[in-house]
Amino acid sequence: MKIAIAIATAGRREGLSETIGYLRRQTRPADAFYVCPASDADLDISCLDGFPSPTHVVKGPRGLPAQRNAILRQMGNEDIVIFFDDDFLPEPTFMAELERLYANHPDVLVATGHVVADGIKGHGISLEDALATIAALPPLPESELRPSYSAYGCNMAVRIDVARQAGIEFDETLPLYGWWEDVDFSRRLAPLGRIVTCNRMRGVHQGSKKGRTPGKRVGYSQVANILYMKRKGSIAATMAFRQIFRNMAANLAGSLLPEPWIDRRGRLAGNLIAVGDVIKGRIDPQRILEL
Which CATH class is domain 3-205? Predict the structure, then answer.
């Protein structure tokens, strides 16, 4: 079984170098490593020197879905690809457990690991704290696979041949950060195989605040992207409206008592612009490029 690691990155040159350095610790090295930076300045090419797998620098349009697609289109005969965020640190046994999962469960199509700490929910996790968290993990538990509605984009594996044969890629209509692109991709693959979370694939998502999409754009995407997915049928209407309500409620509450690491007022403004566009009949995920 050939497994590739893939990272699409933007605006985190130093953090990306740290992540790539850490990936050298995997007990089961990847058979190939692909990285697609949004610009040449986003990758210090020297960080790839001596990497224990063949490395490939891929060129593609800016935007998470487009960059991930550029990687998929350049891949060769790999069987599995694991997409890591540029700020996700997998436990050294992650790749070995990933291989074991797909070898033992041929019906699993999409898999995501257990995020033991997630900085996206707070002010972020430093490299030192992330490494300490991983070092302090208890021994691996007995294997447990839980059905999942979708993979979590910070660590998302997929059988490449199944996705290719079905013609399913990431939707490039979702620009820039691609809010919920992982959910959309997972749900379009869901009829073809199981989506699971594996408790033995563990890691820390640092949740870096560098290179993030501005709050107003995120807020617009929180409405526009989800309505777009509902229209094309990748998510159900009940899921769509429930998630939009949650997003807007969180941003409204956060505007009154804002967290310093999230631009809640900017997000709420983007939500309201999107609601206005719904009323006007011109809601479109691509409009964030004008905001």
Answer: alpha beta
